[in-house]
Amino acid sequence: MPRKEIVVAPNDSGQRLDKFLTKAYPNLPQAVLYKCIRTKDVRRNGSRCKPQDRLQAGDLLSLYWQEEYFQREPKDYDFLKAPAKLNIVWEDENIMLLDKRPGLIVHPDENYHFDSLIARIHHYLFDKGEYRPEEENSFAPALVNRIDRNTGGIVMAAKNAQALRILNQKVKDRELRKFYLCVVCGKMEKEAALLTGYLTKNEAQNRVYVSKKPSPGAKAIRTRYRVLEERGAFSLLEVELLTGRTHQIRAHLAAVGHPLAGDGKYGRNALNKPTGFPYQALYSYKLQFMFTTPAEELEPLNGREFQVNNVWFLEEFRRFPSLTIK
């Protein structure tokens, strides 16, 4: 029976054996995979292994199964159909910070198969020779955070598995600070405050609901804001996202009576129409790396701040003094 040997690359390190083989050999049925592991037709460094074993860079995997399961479908790389144009805020050998403009989705969906932020990143890195999918068993450059299609701002991407692991942990441990600019309807009762509440997600409606009291399935949320400017019936806020839930800023501010200008989902058309905004006035404009634990390869980023200045709604907002809502 055919035998194949592969050396685990750094980008594949840390994965479970079964998850790695599933991604590396998609033609291999799950039942066959687990049988091969059980019968020692999969060996790690010449020894018997288990599905849950964590792989290390340099491990030698010996695989014994039918030739058809080794076959991989030829790929034409759909990401090459997307533009390679990106608004790069920062780039080094490990990460990229991108200024995503409103209207661009971060991942493909059923309606937009080819153009997305991640597809553009893959195309860009492919052109640079930094992403060679034919040489990867299971890894592809990946996004660390996501923002809504019609929200703009900074999105983090990891070029390698180690950077992805570190950044995901830093996000989980809240060692990054994310700030947004937004325009809300009305004047805030306080110049600065910490808003708390509980958020429930309705998948069928693709929206969330915020309440003051906990309920089954609800997740606690915290949103800090400060007022930067006021223009007529609108206010410009800087918001720090302390918990990163779906639509958190949009829903939380709407729940306290100040929906975002232009927000057709959580706002009101009567308030939105005078602004002429095509979508919610929300932008992830500033990111701070505030590591309190070792960051390994990403340690040079500690203490650094990145900011984008081209926020689409600021100029229009500053023309608002004569605008009033009846």
Would you write up a description of this structure?
This protein has helices spanning 17-24, 30-38, 67-70, 117-128, 161-172, 248-255, 269-272, 314-317, and strands at 3-7, 42-44, 47-48, 60-64, 88-91, 95-100, 142-143, 152-158, 176-185, 192-202, 207-211, 219-231, 234-241, 282-289, 305-307. Strands 5, 6, 7, 8, 9, 10, 11, 12, 13, 14 and 15 form an eleven-stranded mixed beta sheet that branches. A four-stranded antiparallel beta sheet has the order 1-4-2-3. The protein has eight helices and 15 strands. The mean pLDDT is 91. With 326 residues, the chain is of the alpha+beta class.
Tell me the layout of helices and strands.
Elements: E1 3-7, H1 17-24, H2 30-38, E2 42-44, E3 47-48, E4 60-64, H3 67-70, E5 88-91, E6 95-100, H4 117-128, E7 142-143, E8 152-158, H5 161-172, E9 176-185, E10 192-202, E11 207-211, E12 219-231, E13 234-241, H6 248-255, H7 269-272, E14 282-289, E15 305-307, H8 314-317
Parallel strand pairs: 8-14
Antiparallel strand pairs: 1-4, 2-3, 2-4, 5-6, 6-8, 7-8, 9-13, 9-14, 10-11, 10-12, 12-13, 14-15
